[in-house]
Amino acid sequence: MHYLISIMYDGSKFYGFQRLKNEITVQSTLENALSIINKKSVTIKGAGRTDRGVHAYDQKITFDLDINIDPKHLKKALNSLVKPYIFVNDAKVVEPSFHARFNVLKKEYIYKINLGEYNPFYENYIYQPNTKINIKKMKKCAKLFIGPHNFQNFVSGSRDNYDCIIYKISFKVKKNILEIKFIGKSFYRYMVRNLVGAMLDVTSNKVSLEQINEALKNPLIKKQFTTASPRGLYLNKIYYKGVKNE
């Protein structure tokens, strides 16, 4: 049987999503648990890789099991093995060809910033710059990122293609917590963190909006912007065509 599950996890307790030889990761924890249920080794495919310290509300995973177990009991069995820092939100059977990453329609990330005084309980979950932030400037900067662009200056590491589309960036403040929501087709390594870092550079007058615009229009002219902390970043939702989000 081929399954699709939605999971949430506390990224501060893992060395990222991807399996590593000598570290505890989300992937290795899930694969170990599923192998116990399946009584045979299981390999999973995630919708995306989150870095160390990055959290998720709705990461999606696909995998095959040799046993026939209904989604309700699979969710219960898996949660009994992966808690307390991972929780399965939902499980469903999907077509054998369905792939967690290749079938993604769009992704949604949220970045959280504490606008108030330092709070020790936020340390692993909300970025705390302890400086005044000009949200109006951040919004002006965000508008430059909307649409199709070559994001080479906002992606860490090298890859063959840096083109992607950001559909929407929105801002919401509640109880002194700023939430910046990014919706797009795909996001590359450190991309959301680099976009947030660039916005913060604009608010602190380290760079201008003109420099941000130049970095988008001339990707081969190397620009360096701040990479925001992973602790404020959340993979919020993964959308698929024909698959209802719970």
CATH-defined superfamily of the largest domain: Pseudouridine synthase I, catalytic domain, C-terminal subdomain
Residue-averaged pLDDT: 93
Strand count? 9
- The separation of the N and C termini measures 21 Å
Shape: globular
Helix content: 10-25%
What report would you give on this structure?
Helices cover 24% and strands 29% of the residues. It is an alpha+beta fold and 246 residues long. Strands 1, 2, 3, 4, 5, 6, 7, 8 and 9 form a 9-stranded mixed sheet that branches. Helix 1 (26-38) crosses helix 2, helix 3 (135-145) crosses helix 4 (191-203) and helix 3 (135-145) packs parallel to helix 5 (209-217).
Q: Which labels suit this protein?
A:
246 residues; alpha+beta; Alpha-Beta Plaits; 29% strand; 2 domains
What is this structure, in a nutshell?
This protein is of the alpha+beta class and 246 residues long. Helices cover 24% and strands 29% of the residues. It folds into two domains: 2-102, 2-Layer Sandwich (Alpha-Beta Plaits); 105-238, 2-Layer Sandwich (Alpha-Beta Plaits).
